[in-house]
Amino acid sequence: MTFAKLTKLLQKHKTDYPFFALRKTWAEQLQRGDTLGPSRRWWDGEPVYVHKWIKPEETQQYEKQGYIVYHDRDEWCYHNLSYMLEHDFDLVIAVNKNAYTMEAGTCGIEVTLDTIEQALTLITKYNGDQLVLMAGVSGEKGYDKGEIIIADAKAIAVWKITKGAKPPPQY
Fold first, then answer.
1. Which of 7, 13, 5 has the alpha carbon at shortest distance from 33?
2. Do the Cβ atoms of 61 and 127 come closer than 8 Å?
3. Would you say 98 and 47 are in contact if contact means Cβ atoms under 8 Å apart?
4. Which residues contact 75 (CB under 8 A, 6 or more apart)?
5. Strands 92-96 vs 51-54: parallel, antiparallel or unpaired
6. Residue ranges of the chain with per-residue pLDDT less than 50
7. What CA–CA distance (Å, rounded) separates 124 from 141?
8. Distances (CA, A) of 147 to 3, 10, 60, 139, 143
9. Residue 60 dihedral angles phi and psi, to the nearest 5°
10. How far apart are CA 148 and CA 42, in angstroms?
11. What are phi and psi of 105, to 5 degrees?
């Protein structure tokens, strides 16, 4: 993705959307026009401490502790499917619901015609196998440097990242 491509896309869509952001995603297989789901705000700043891969027979034990258990084809397992396939585990993932809140939209690094270089620099700190330019009509300042939360964000462009993509953390 180049500065020129991003400039052209922002100019093309600026009359339709007042808010734009770059976001990296893992295994979501997003396409142009898709609506992105809401992001989570983790209380400790890192989701790694609220996930546990558990055996199916441990489900009730974790549910009693406030965890939500997701099975195959559910969002959390799909997101971490590469981990399951790599380790050939017959596991489910338990997420402590008390450790996060749902945001009012999707988080990303805000990008405008004046901040393209800064946004391209900030997005390098995030990992993913896709880079998404998303846009929306409603946005608010996020918590991280340069972050914006866009309600009902639409994917304007999606690029596959092949070089330098780091796998997601193993929970």
1. 13
2. no
3. no
4. none
5. antiparallel
6. 48-49, 73, 76-78, 88, 167-171
7. 19
8. 19, 17, 37, 10, 6
9. -60, -40
10. 16
11. -175, -160
